[in-house]
Each structure stands twice: as structure tokens, then as C-alpha cells.
Amino acid sequence: MRSLILALLLTSPTFAQIHSGDVELGVADGMIVTNERVYDAEFGEIIPNEVDEPGFDSLPGTFPTGSSIGFTILDSLRKWNGTDFATIPTETVSIAFGTSLGPVVTPVTPSLVNGFHLNVSSDGSWHRHYDFVLNTPQSKGIYLLQLQLSSSDPTIDPTDPFFIVFNQNDSVFNHDAAIGFVESLLLVPEPSGLLLALIGGLCLRIRR
User: Fold this and answer.
1) Which residues contact 130 (CB under 8 A, 6 or more apart)?
2) pLDDT of residue 189
3) Contact at 8 Å (CB) between 175 and 141?
């Protein structure tokens, strides 16, 4: 039922009004849903080692007025080694919102890190852009960040985990290969609602 509701939501004419390229958010069957599970981004589009894409957007009335949406980092930053994302690099990624909130930094060992919440607009929409910064040594490569969004409203469940695959001065070919690898893992059916994505012999911490 949830998948049917989500399909109807994402194909509606009004949902298409959300900014192209953003993580599109809705609420289906009491759960925050995203239009995709894997997103791509390029560090250094405007400022070296930094990007504020993808953003996050939803239509008016999606969330309860007075509530807020927050994020959780679900794993260490991972780096593509040409085959998988088993490598935890020296680099970390910081997530901030302007100069007022953050930075929240990816953990150096696999663990959960709670981020900050941002208020829903008065019309029930939520359109925000975090600042993602790749920290030193900022080497060339493809990096994987795993996130989850949650609402302060206890009646709304968090998103399924989703992934941002960042390119730091690497080729389009390598970026696409890394994205395809993550997408292929998500094709595996979830046992009992829990997806175990095997990354080079390591299980990503994917939780609802």
C-alpha cells in the first residue's frame, strides 16, 4: 500500500512543481518518503570542496505547521575504490546550515550521528539546502554519504536511508559507476523491512 501511495504522490502534477534536482519529500502512509534513494552531487561547483546540492523540498501542507525536520548521519563517509565503498577515507564531510547551525561531521568509525532540526514553513512546506563540505585532505575521488530525515512529529516515521554520491574532481565515468553500484544494492528485496546493503564485506547501517 505504501508503495502505491508513493507512486501516486510522485506522479501527480503538483509534485512536479518541486525544484528539479532536489530531494523531493512527501508523507505516505505515515512515513516521510523521498522520490529517489540515490542522489549525485559535485563538490566545487561554486566554492572548492563544497556544495549545497541536493536541496530538500516539499509541497505546502506536507508537514504539520510548527513541526521540524532533522537529519541523522547513518555511517562513516565512504570512498569509492573502483569496486565498492569499503574504504573509510581520511576525509570527513561537514554538514551545516549557513553560519547558524553545524557543522555536524561524519564519524571516523561507523556509527550514528544526530544532526540538527530546521522548522517547517508556515504553509507546511520544507525547502532547505545544507552546506556539504569535504574536509582535509580533500583528495580526488567519489564519496558516499548515507542520511535519514525525521520529523519532530511523533506520528510521522523517518525516511528510509538515502545516499548522496559526491564527485571530488574525478571523472564522470567513475561517478556514474559508483552511483550504479549503490543503485544495484538497493534492488535487493528488503528482508522484514530491513535492507542490508553489503559494501565490500561491510554492512552499511541502514535503519528505518
Assistant:
1) 52, 55, 56, 71, 95, 96, 97, 102
2) 58
3) no
pLDDT tens per residue across span 139-156: 999 999 999 999 999 999
**Which residue type does 192 have?**
S
By the 8 A CB rule, do 163 and 38 touch?
yes
Contact (Cβ atoms closer than 8 angstroms) between residue 123 and residue 61: yes
**Distance between CA atoms of residues 93 and 77, nearest Å:** 7
Q: Which of 55, 68, 162 is nearest to 122 (CA)?
A: 68
pTM score: 0.84
End-to-end CA distance of the chain: 17
**What region does 23 belong to: left with phi over 0, alpha with psi -120 to 50, or beta?**
beta
Residue 195 has pLDDT above 70, yes or no: no
Rounded CA-CA distance 164/134 in Å is 13
pLDDT digit string, tens, across residues 15-70: 444 445 789 999 999 999 999 999 999 999 999 999 999 999 999 999 999 999 99
Q: How far apart are CA 134 and CA 62, in angstroms?
A: 32
